[in-house]
Design a protein that fits this description.
The chain has 2 domains: 18-101, no CATH class; 120-384, Metallo-dependent phosphatases (Purple Acid Phosphatase, chain A, domain 2, 4-Layer Sandwich). The protein is elongated, with a radius of gyration of 31 Å. Helix 4 (137-161) packs parallel to helix 6 (194-214). A 6-stranded mixed beta sheet has the order 11-8-7-6-17-18, with helices on one face. Strands 1, 2, 3, 4 and 5 form a 5-stranded antiparallel beta sheet that branches. With 385 residues, the chain is an alpha/beta fold. The protein is built from 9 helices and 18 strands.
């Protein structure tokens, strides 16, 4: 008694791999396949039978036959052939492109082709201006920021499932409002003194760090100075550019974390991340991201300022992405060939600015994902939370 070899599925008669051609028309069959044939496979069958290269599948002529076997569900594909000319070969087959659209399988929700380690979440803490009395004052700000943190936490949970497990928390300046020296009504409008503003800023940053610790993220802290953090006399900074409350708050947070090294082992503050200048550039998963508050340039001139920084061979001029604050509204521009992101503010707005210019923008916190795994742009998933 002989045993039948089941290593190769049997083909239903009439659908074996074959080709016929009489010089003007013909037919081609693929033989049994598990997946839909590609153009390359059709061409290989034509070449395998030595018919020639000047043939093409007639659009709309493909037939499918399917059946179940011990090897699983199998399919055969048969199509009609016709001659192709050089002109036809040089033109796109729009019907084939339409079929690709119709047969495209949607990605399963949660699928992600990127590999973990080559991207990181960037969280921009821009223009909180804690202590500012407008828009409901500090109580409204705290509630607004905590709600934003809740949305950020939910967003970060989803990213973590897709292999993103590192976050850069960067202060973009004007974390506190200050008490005087910035505009005429400031002393009357602030609802916290300077010490209280800095205390609340520390608590809010620590709360954000704790949330990412709970999510098992690796955390990098950094900050650049803004104008509201300056040590001023008669309305002008008079000590040094880095004698700034925006930097001091992050330094204090870093010192607090350093005294519990075991709990905060996954938190780091790289050298230079709390800026020793008005700008800072970080290598985020292979992409250079520059940070500046933005008060170095007049409104509408930040792109030109960045261009001049590149011309002057300044470190931030080499950045692939520039992130700024100060102007309290969102900008996302790629007009320079690189990306400039301007962050919205989290403060309660400015009646004076709106009354004099008519302009206003809703509060929000800008986040995005950066790294070589994001493709040519170096960033993706821009969110305003």
């Amino acid at each position: 008694m002989s045993l039948k070899n089941h290593s190769k599925p049997e083909a239903p008669k009439g659908w074996e791999k074959s080709i016929t051609w009489d010089g003007t028309k013909g037919e081609i069959s693929t033989g049994p396949l598990a997946d839909e044939p590609t153009d390359d496979l059709w061409n290989e069958i034509v070449k395998d039978f030595g018919i020639g290269d000047n043939l093409r599948i007639i659009p709309g002529s493909i037939q499918i036959r399917a059946w179940d076997s011990y090897a699983g569900r199998m399919k055969y594909y048969r199509a009609r052939l016709e001659p192709s000319t050089a002109n036809e070969e040089s033109r796109l087959d729009v019907d084939r492109l339409c079929r690709i659209i119709e047969r495209r399988r949607p990605l399963v929700r949660g699928d992600d082709s990127h590999q973990g380690g080559d991207r990181a979440l960037v969280v921009c803490l821009a223009d909180w201006q804690i202590g500012k009395g407008e828009g409901g004052g500090t109580p409204a700000f705290v509630e607004r920021l905590l709600e934003t943190f809740d949305r950020l936490e939910a967003h970060a949970k989803g990213l973590y499932k897709q292999g993103i497990s590192q976050v850069y928390i960067v202060g973009l300046g004007d974390v506190i409002e200050g008490c005087s020296g910035f505009y005429a009504m400031q002393e009357w409008q602030t609802d916290l003194d300077r010490r209280e503003q800095m205390k609340l800023a520390r608590r809010m940053i620590l709360d954000l760090v704790e949330r990412f610790i709970k999510l098992k993220y690796r955390i990098v802290l950094g900050a650049v100075p803004g104008n509201h953090g300056e040590n001023r006399k008669n309305g002008k900074a008079f000590t040094t550019w880095t004698d700034n409350d925006d930097l001091a708050v992050f330094e204090q947070v870093a010192e607090i974390l350093s005294h519990n090294a075991e709990r905060y082992a996954e938190v780091s503050v790289p050298s230079g991340a709390i800026a020793d200048d008005l700008t800072m550039t970080l290598d985020i998963c292979g992409v250079d991201v520059g940070f500046a508050h933005g008060h170095q340039a007049r409104a509408g001139q930040l792109a030109n300022w960045w261009l001049r920084q590149a011309h002057g061979k300044q470190p931030i001029g080499h950045a692939d992405i520039l992130v700024t604050g100060h102007y309290h509204h969102l900008v996302c521009s790629e007009s320079s060939g690189r990306t400039w992101l301007q962050c919205p503010a989290m403060d309660g707005g400015s009646k004076w600015f709106t009354n004099t210019t008519g302009a206003s923008a809703p509060p929000g916190m800008l986040t995005f994902v950066a790294g070589q795994g994001c493709g040519d742009r170096g960033w993706e998933r821009l969110e305003i939370l």
